[in-house]
Design goal:
30-stranded mixed beta sheet; elongated; alpha+beta; 607 residues
Length: 607
């Protein structure tokens, strides 16, 4: 027992002697000139330690410093790259003898970092590494790898009022990132410790404010880092933000395998504006290009509420703005991605077009984006798409295969383009390819072929039976006003194929069938000008009885020419009365020839 007392007394005496030595004979401020000279020699920068360094002792050993600054390269503005108001580091003394680290306090307050990029491309980081940085890194790495710790305990970490100013002189822009606070509560290996932060950023076109809290745990062998219950709330404001303000909230848990360099994130809930989502993300960052696998489930998305509202044009005339030549979008970033994404969406509404039950599989690798599958419910039908974008060249190329089955075409056209032209159940398929993603070039360079059929439908904007009755009346000399009827022509089927080249869709075999009519024709639709040019031929099956006609129609069997011109928005229909009259005269002439022929045959038969 006496031995233990003497041992403790000896330890206390040694600590007191060390303390007296350090305070009386060893002043840390004596080393300030040597530290300043070492930094100057290594980086060429000026290090200033304005405040006196001070020791703290038993039960902790530590140092307090303040008024520290490190200069930017000569000629930079601001002159200081780093400024620190106050920093405190205190470590418990006794646990060090048993290879345990107990940090009583780590705190940093009032740090300002000015990172400048000049017009000539030089930056604040130039020269910081020094010539001996690589040589110095090797032994340090070896020392750290051989070191072993039994435990780490941290009483707390506090970082407050830290600001990073990113200054780009070429763009004349300054971005300010402020870490108002970051705190880590009492921390020990294999135990969860609370964390919290408050952050803001000011950029030329937006401001961001964010705060979050959660808890983290580090394994004893330093190979696993776990973050649980992390909840982050963020507000983004700016003119370029939908509705000028976007609020987001995310709750997640993550695990990082530090030895395998793998990260997994489980997102329990994500909300952004009115959009809700959940999902999982896995990242393998051990490879040269990190491999990312993601699986997300989203709810209802109404993009119309997020898009900027269109404002009415000003009444006063304005000079047309100078047109800027369109350039190809830069897709070079796709070469640095290795991503697999699976996405499901409950519904999407955009430009008043509604779709449901989206299922999408996307892969990006080596500069190629593969949309292997996209399925969705579309106006009581199905949409199936596969596509590929190859961005390995400066001008991207693409190809696609699209099928639409069982879609109600009238509400689709109304919602998508405000066009009331067709009704019926539509099936549609098209395959295409092209180069360039500039909108105008895309229309010109697209090569495609497809087929369509519409069943049990109607053609709106024209009443062909009524036009025929009107033509009949005019041929008989009846010039009375036409009766007003709904401008609609019912049909049982409408089919055709088409090709697309140089912005013009060509349909050579349009065919329409109905109980009363047969229609065939061909024409073009110009995607660049939206101009229509169709020439159709209509013939009656028997009569127009039931639609205002007689039992046996005088025009039965006669081809009736019909032209469709105008634009997609305002198609125009016209009946060629002159051609119709010529057809009827030709038929009457043929009948007269037949009668004359019969009469001659009878006379000849009498001989």
């Amino acid at each position: 027992m006496k031995f233990i007392k003497w041992l403790l007394a000896l330890v206390v005496t040694l600590i007191l002697l060390v303390t007296v030595y350090l305070t009386v004979f060893f002043d840390p401020n004596d080393f300030k000139p040597e530290i300043v000279d070492a930094v100057k020699k290594q980086t060429g920068r000026e290090l200033v330690i304005a405040d006196d360094l001070s020791w703290t002792f038993f039960p902790v050993i530590g140092i307090n410093l303040g008024g520290v600054s490190l200069s930017n390269p000569e000629g930079f503005t601001p002159k200081a790259m780093l400024e620190v108001n106050k920093a405190v580091a205190e470590v418990a003394l006794m646990p060090l003898f048993s290879q345990q680290i107990e940090i009583a306090e780590l705190s940093l307050d009032g740090a300002t970092i000015n990172l400048v990029t000049r017009k000539n491309g030089t930056s604040s980081f130039d020269g910081l590494s020094g010539d001996n940085s690589k040589k110095a890194a090797t032994p340090a790495a070896e020392t750290s790898s051989n070191a072993k710790l039994n435990d780490i305990n941290i009483g707390g970490i506090s970082i407050t009022n830290t600001q990073i100013n990113m200054i780009d002189e070429a763009k004349k822009q300054t971005q300010v990132f402020t870490l108002k606070s970051f705190t880590l509560g009492e921390f020990a290996l294999e135990q969860f410790a609370p964390i919290a932060f408050e952050f803001s950023a000011t950029m030329p076109d937006m401001t961001v404010s964010s705060e979050g809290k959660g808890e983290l745990k580090l394994s004893r062998d330093f190979t696993q880092l776990v973050v649980n219950g992390l909840k982050i709330d963020t507000v983004v404001e700016g003119e370029s933000i939908p509705n000028k303000k976007l609020e987001t909230s995310i709750s997640l848990a993550t695990q990082i395998a530090l030895d395998k360099q793998q990260l997994s994130v489980d997102i329990a809930q994500l909300t952004a504006a009115s959009i809700t989502a959940a999902g999982k993300v896995g990242v393998n960052y051990a490879t040269k290009i990190p491999q990312i696998n993601a699986d997300f489930q989203l709810g209802d998305i109404d993009l119309d509420t997020l898009l900027p509202k269109t404002e009415p044009a000003a009444a006063t005339e304005q000079a047309p703005a100078a047109s800027t030549p369109a350039v190809e979008p830069d897709l070079s970033a796709l070469k640095q991605l290795d991503v697999k994404l699976k996405l499901t969406v409950k519904s999407i509404k955009v430009a008043n077009l509604s779709t449901q039950n989206w299922l999408m599989d996307v892969g990006i690798k080596n500069g190629v984006l593969d949309l292997t599958k996209l399925n969705a419910d579309l106006y009581q039908g199905k949409l199936l798409v596969s596509a590929q974008v190859d961005a390995r060249q400066a001008v991207a190329s693409y190809q696609f295969d699209k099928k639409v089955t069982g879609v109600q075409i009238r509400p689709l056209l109304k919602d998508a383009a405000d066009v009331d032209l067709l009704a019926g159940t539509a099936n549609f398929d098209v395959k295409g390819k092209g180069r360039s993603l500039i909108p105008e070039q895309l229309k010109k360079n697209l090569l495609a072929n497809g087929h369509f059929d519409i069943n049990d439908g109607a053609l709106y904007g024209v009443n062909i039976p009524q036009m025929i009755r009107s033509a009949q009346a005019k041929l008989k000399g009846d010039l009375s006003p036409e009766t007003k009827e709904e401008r609609k022509t019912d049909f049982s089927s409408l089919t055709g194929s088409f090709s697309l080249d140089n912005g013009v869709a060509t349909n050579p075999d349009l065919a329409m069938s109905s109980p009363l009519l047969r229609l065939a024709g061909k024409g073009t639709a110009n995607l660049l000008t939206e101009a229509l040019d169709y020439r159709l031929t209509t013939s009656l099956v028997s009569s127009l009885k039931g639609q205002g006609g007689s039992d046996k129609d005088a025009l039965a069997g006669i081809d009736i020419p019909l032209a469709i011109t105008g634009t997609f928005q305002k198609p125009e229909y016209a009946l060629d009365t002159k051609a119709l009259l010529n057809n009827q005269l030709k038929e009457e002439t043929d009948k007269a020839k037949e009668k004359l022929k019969d009469s001659l045959l009878k006379k000849l038969g009498g001989f």
